[in-house]
């Protein structure tokens, strides 16, 4: 067990789900936690949640992450690089992380950090807590079939959302006292699909929302932004998603405190 921060008072773990661009809502949640002076002592992230968590773990505040995210466009994080296992490369994402955070190891984070990936060669869930940060985060966000898998420590890694999109298990393994979870699929509302892309989008959201509800039973507080109005692929939606994450966090905290 990683005992950083474990002896300095109450421990609070924050789990940030995957969700591609929808995960920008996590930044709004972080802004609320900063404003409220709520200290996160342990972090876990999957896919986009891993990217946001990485910045927060290394000392960026929510407002600073917002500034970076609002300038983000797909050419900053990926590029065409066809291979037998994918069509896009994660090299630009890793370069972006290293530009802002340096060539750092996960164990050097100010807040203990775990990210979830999937070993596509074995079907195993991989919880990464040590080693090169950039490749770990890229692996967690590597959507199979689109991005070329990340080779890391003898494993062939892809998106952790295949096995644990809402990453609460690493926080439980650390033994934190309180768990906050943020999931961007639970709050999505469904509409009758008009075409095949909408049908497939609904199907993905149903699976991820169901898995999140099951996992969220282990959390003390679930924050579920309503991301229905936005696409998981449009970077132009980032500011609105941050605003929705902020709103959802404010509402969830008020309700939680009211019950306490």
How does this model look, in words?
The N terminus is likely disordered. The relative contact order is 0.19. Strands 1, 2, 5, 6, 7, 8, 9 and 10 form an eight-stranded mixed β-sheet that branches. Strands 3-4 form a two-stranded antiparallel sheet. The chain has 260 residues and is α/β, with parallel strands linked by helices. 41% of the residues lie in helices and 18% in strands.
Supply database-style keywords.
alpha/beta, two-stranded antiparallel sheet, disordered N terminus
| C-alpha Rg (nearest Å) | 17 Å
The oligomeric state is single chain
Distance between the termini: 30 Å
Mean pLDDT: 91
Write down the overall geometry: globular
Order of helices and strands: EHEHHHEEHEEHEEHHEHEH
How many strands in all? 10
Task: Walk me through the topology.
Layout lengths: L11 E5 L8 H12 L5 E5 L1 H10 L4 H9 L3 H4 L1 E5 L2 E4 L1 H11 L11 E7 L4 E5 L4 H8 L9 E3 L2 E5 L1 H4 L4 H6 L3 E5 L13 H21 L4 E3 L14 H22 L1
Parallel strand pairs: 1-2, 1-9, 2-5, 9-10
Antiparallel strand pairs: 3-4, 5-6, 5-8, 7-8
């Amino acid at each position: 067990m990683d005992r950083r921060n474990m002896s300095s008072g109450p421990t609070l773990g924050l789990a940030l789900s995957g969700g591609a661009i929808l995960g920008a809502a996590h930044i709004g949640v972080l802004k609320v936690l900063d404003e409220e002076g709520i200290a996160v002592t342990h972090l876990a992230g999957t896919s986009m949640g891993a990217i946001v968590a990485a910045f927060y773990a290394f000392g960026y505040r929510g407002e600073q992450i917002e500034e970076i995210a609002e300038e983000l466009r797909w050419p900053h994080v990926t590029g065409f690089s066809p291979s037998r296992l994918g069509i896009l490369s994660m090299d630009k994402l890793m370069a972006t992380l290293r530009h802002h955070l340096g060539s750092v190891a996960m164990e050097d984070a100010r807040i203990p950090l775990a990210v979830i990936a999937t070993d596509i060669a074995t079907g195993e869930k991989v919880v990464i807590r040590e080693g090169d940060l950039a490749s770990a985060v890229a692996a967690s966000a590597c959507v199979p079939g689109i991005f070329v898998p990340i080779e890391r420590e003898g494993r062939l890694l892809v998106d952790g959302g295949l096995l644990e999109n809402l990453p609460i298990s690493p926080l439980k393994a650390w033994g934190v006292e309180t768990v906050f979870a943020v999931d961007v699929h639970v709050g999505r509302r469904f509409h009758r699909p008009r075409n095949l892309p909408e049908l497939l989008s609904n199907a993905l959201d149903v699976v991820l929302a169901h898995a999140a509800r099951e996992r969220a039973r282990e959390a003390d507080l679930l924050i579920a932004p309503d991301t229905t109005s936005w696409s998981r692929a449009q970077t132009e939606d980032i500011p609105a998603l941050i605003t929705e994450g902020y709103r959802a966090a404010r509402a969830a905290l008020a309700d939680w405190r009211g019950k306490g």
